[in-house]
Hints:
Blueprint: H1 9-18, E1 25-33, E2 40-49, E3 54-57, H2 64-71, E4 79-84, E5 87-89, H3 92-101, E6 102-105, H4 118-128, H5 133-146, H6 162-174, E7 180-184, H7 192-204, E8 208-212, H8 216-222, E9 225-230, E10 233-236
Parallel strand pairs: 3-8, 3-9, 6-7, 7-8
Antiparallel strand pairs: 1-2, 1-4, 4-5, 9-10
Helix pairs in contact: 4-5, 4-6
Bound molecules: adenosine-5'-triphosphate and magnesium ion (MG).
Amino acid sequence: MLSRPPDPRPLMYLQKNLMSKTPLVELKHISFKYQDSEHLVLDNVDFALGERRIGLIGPNGSGKTTMFHVIMGLHTPSSGIVLYRGKPVKKESEFRELRRDVGLIFQNADDQLFSPTVMEDVAFGPLNLGASPDEAGKIARKTLDDLGLSGLKNRITHRLSGGEKKLVSLATILSMDPKVLLMDEPTNDLDPPTRARLITILKELKQSYVIISHDWDFLTDTVQDIFGMDHGRVIRCDKEHLHNHPHAHPFGTQHHHHV
Ligand SMILES: Nc1ncnc2c1ncn2[C@@H]1O[C@H](COP(=O)(O)OP(=O)(O)OP(=O)(O)O)[C@@H](O)[C@H]1O
Ligand SMILES: [Mg+2]
């Protein structure tokens, strides 16, 4: 289990020190329960995102996905506030603005992909943002090219493999050119060469991002800061706050501690 600091405030100090200006999105004292449940899934969470590349690691059920969904306005917090460019966001129209800047790659690719073909799925976002069909087609082709996925262009989306779906999900978000990406377990279903390719892709992206992953080595390769989540609290994850390690890591090379 992750160790818990006595007060979550040091996290905000740390994040604020790392950011040079108002964060693009900030969670302040966010708590959240699902309907008909007494269980506090998010417990007074403070978190900021914008410029840095951040990793979020933590046990199953600790609230990581829920936090992403609160950031996107898919869940309404029980208390606390979401700030976008320093201003509170509450209404759906305000979250729509936020979603132009923040792209979510769902944990389950089947929640992301809904068009018959890969091209249509990747072109959907730009079309929705007002691009003409020609422009949207161009953007989709270029995005797939950049990711080395041109070969999948005309494939039927629901017949893609799990790993292919994950990469196409990334393409559907990148085609909208968000400022920040939220990636929920992007290496799930990826074989080692594809995982390595994703690392190369992420390193070349101009965007900042937050990645949820159980893959410590992947995070150390792709992010600047790593935070842990435990029982609905976001905590620093560094030498003083060691993570537990229930998973196998056959490709792990980075030195790290087990508790
Ligand atoms: N729609 C829902 N209704 C009720 N409880 C839910 C719902 N979705 C998630 N939960 C519960 O909320 C808690 C946090 O779930 P969440 O999916 O955010 O965890 P996670 O950290 O992303 O886990 P994982 O690593 O397994 O993806 C879990 O106990 C889960 O069972
Ligand atoms: Mg999750």
